Structures are given as C-alpha cells and as structure tokens.
Amino acid sequence: MKSKEEYKKIFRRKAIESLRKISKARAKIEDKKLLQELKKQFDFKSIKRVLLYIPLTMEVDVRPLITQLRQSGVEVYVPFMEGKSFRPLKYRLPLQKKRFGIYEPKNSRQYRPKKIDIAVVPIIGIDPTMRRIGFGKGFYDRFFEKEKRNIGTIIFIQRHLCYAPIILTDSHDVRGDRVVAGYRLECFFKS
C-alpha cells in the first residue's frame, strides 16, 4: 500500500504530463474561454486589489486580464519569491526571469497591499477537499497560511481540471473558494 505522499507524487507527475501535452494552439483557445469565465467572477466596480501570477507554459495565460484590470484602475499584484514563500508585488514592467523560470517584476517594498480582494491561483490539480495540489514547493501554502485573513476570494485556475478522487492534501494546503477550469481529468490510482 502506497502512502498519501507517494500517491500525491504520482498524481502530480500524471497531471503535469497531461498538461504538457496540450498544444500551444489548443492552449490559446482554452485560455481565451477560461479568461471569459474568470471575468464573470469579478465585480469590476468593487474590487481594488487582485493577486494574479506570471504564467508558466502549462498555466493559463492571465496576462490579458492583467492588462484589462490595470486599465480599469485595479491594482494587480503578482508573487515575488522570497526564501520559501513569496510576497505580493505590484505588477510592473520590465519583468525578470528568476528561479524556476518564473518571471517577476523588480523588487520593491513600496507596493505592499493591505488586503487582496481576489487571489487567482494556478493549480496542478485538486482533491475532494478543494485544496490545491501544486508543484510541491509550498510557496503558495506558506503565503496563504500567513496572509489568509487579508485575502478575500481564492479562485483556482487550470486549463484542464486534474482531479484526484482521493484526499491527497493536508490541512496546510491552500483551499480554494472556486475553480475555473476546462474539462475534468481524473487520475485513478492502482496500489
């Protein structure tokens, strides 16, 4: 019998493989649909601050939404890696390629949000508890554990929802309020 951690590693590997198989052309079509669905979750008149991310290739490209939100006067923040966590940094150009191939704005302490209305978080998958399965480094988990009282709604996003039918997460893993995703893929495990 495998441990929960072993199942989680298997799930993560299978989910990443399936997400990497999506062609660039298909990803562009999926992303456009998903951004339309994501925008339905926003009340553009009442939100002031949103946490988004600079996408990796296998993540939904939210850059058009970043542009639209900024043009609407919404403050957009993205993760800036610090140690084993991150802090939200106001989105601004130019971006620099950092650890894990992630692009970030230049470091600045002057733009630190007090409250984030909506956090849009990329996922590898979820389990029945609506908790995030990510790349396994814990950056988002540590950030949300420390800042959860300052964050409104957490929306998970992914092109294809990789869903684990068994509980793979722990209480410290980020729990989402909503999920915006394409079709659902289930990874079944064999002992």
What does this structure look like?
Helix content is 27%, strand content 27%. The chain is α/β, with parallel strands linked by helices. The chain has a single domain (4-186), classed as 3-Layer(aba) Sandwich (Rossmann fold), CATH 3.40.50. The chain is globular and about 50 Å long. The relative contact order is 0.20.
Summarize the structure.
27% of the residues lie in helices and 27% in strands. It has 4 helices and 12 strands; from the N terminus they run ααβαβββββββαββββ.
SSE map:
Blueprint: H1 4-20, H2 24-39, E1 49-51, H3 63-71, E2 75-82, E3 85-90, E4 95-97, E5 103-105, E6 116-122, E7 125-126, E8 132-133, H4 139-147, E9 151-158, E10 161-163, E11 178-181, E12 184-186
Parallel strand pairs: 1-2, 1-6, 6-9, 9-11, 10-12
Antiparallel strand pairs: 2-3, 4-5, 7-8
Strand order of the largest sheet: 3-2-1-6-9-11
CATH architecture: 3-Layer(aba) Sandwich
Low-confidence stretches: none
Number of helices: 4
CATH class: Alpha Beta
* Radius of gyration of CA atoms, rounded to a whole number: 16 Å
**What oligomeric assembly is this protein in?**
single chain
The CATH fourth-level homologous superfamily? NagB/RpiA/CoA transferase-like
Count of structural domains: 1
- Percentage of residues in strands: 25-35%
Number of strands: 12
CATH-defined topology: Rossmann fold
What string gives the helices and strands in order? Answer: HHEHEEEEEEEHEEEE
Q: Which shape, going by the Cα principal axes?
A: globular
Helix coverage percent = 25-40%
